[in-house]
# Entry
Amino acid sequence: MNLRLPTRPRAARPTGGGRSSALHARRPALLLAVAAAGGLMVNVLTANEPAAQAEPQLASVSVAEQLGITEPAPVEEHAVSAVDSLGELAASRSQRQAEQDAAAQAQAAADQAELDRRAAEEAARKAAEEEAARKAAEAEAARAAEAAAAAARPGRGTTVAVAPAGSYQDYAMSKLGGSGSEFSCLEKLWGKESGWNPNAQNPTSTAYGIPQFLDSTWKGTGIAKTSDGYRQIDAGLIYIENRFGSPCGAWAHSQAKGWY
# Structure
């Protein structure tokens, strides 16, 4: 009788591929351990050896290099590089700030120069106006003094008019009642005789003033010889009315005879 015992199934062995992967995963750690142990053994073996025989301890370094383990760069180099970068950044900011400050100072100087120029121009303008006013006042004072001197010496006038141009004509027209035709004749008559200058003096006779009256003619008007242009007009109109009847009659006589 044949009896068969039941067989127990065998556990599956790990394949070579799994073992190989695990070994590959643990290889760097094993190699580091081997390198460390080798270095320790070298140190132990050479502890009592002379200095000349202790050189084999450098083998641990060559093993680390063979494993491709590189030492990190010294921390000091990174720190120095960072400090240098910060220094360059600070210098750049300082330079930009200095340039901005210089530009602001230049603009402020330009603005001040413009203000000074305008102030100088305004001062020059005011000085010119004051100088012109001073000269005008001096000229007016000189004319007034000359008129006063001429009034004190009737018949010895100057070529300077006592009143502004046009005022004598306006006065004469008002005395004629606003008659444009009569004033036109009078304007031509006295324009020919004196140019309406109350200080006009004939160099060859005593004829004087706007109407160019002789000293004897002045006496017939009832008005004394004077340098006052307005009084001369009064005397002239009295003379013309008594002798010719109107300014146009006097102008017609002047044109025919050359005098009136």
Residues 125 and 131 are 10 Å apart (CA to CA). DSSP finds eight helices and no strands in the chain. Residues 1-7, 14-25, 37-60, 150-163 have pLDDT under 50 and may be disordered. Helices lie at 16-45, 59-66, 75-152, 167-175, 180-193, 215-221, 229-243, 247-257.
